């Protein structure tokens, strides 16, 4: 059996967020630039729930940090812009990065959650 050409093309074929980033899978996109895509969560936990994700496949935050540390900052900048777009900057919102099993990461492609439109508790559950 033929080996996949490279890991990245393999990831794009198998990974839901890679497929959304490549516009091969439908999503409610609220922001896009050449490196980042942001779309509404399919199972929203608040009136506004947006996922902000690099288009390239990074399974974990550590992989992302190693391979493109500057993009981490640009991901946060995109989230802040989306907070304004969603008219949440003044009332407030929550940003969440789930990492690993105990962090509650279920999709193995890095994504930042922006949640807003209701108050949130602290500490989180
Ligand atoms: P996490 O638990 O941090 O890995 O978050 C994964 C999030 O992705 C969950 O909130 C899911 O509801 C969301 N999700 C999974 N598949 C899709 C999809 N196709 N479109 C939008 N959101 C999705
Ligand atoms: Zn991916």
Walkthrough of the structure:
The chain has a domain of 83 residues: HIT family, subunit A (2-Layer Sandwich), CATH 3.30.428.10. Helix 3 crosses helix 4. The chain starts with 6 loop residues before the first helix and ends in a 9-residue tail after the last strand. The chain has a 5-stranded antiparallel beta sheet. The radius of gyration is 15 Å and the shape is globular. The protein has 125 residues and is of the alpha+beta class. The site of adenosine monophosphate has 12 residues, from loops.
Summed up, what is this model?
The chain is an alpha+beta fold. The chain is 34% helix and 20% strand.
List keywords for this structure.
125 residues, alpha+beta, HIT family, subunit A, five-stranded antiparallel β-sheet, 5 strands, 34% helix, 20% strand, disordered N terminus, binds adenosine monophosphate, binds zinc ion
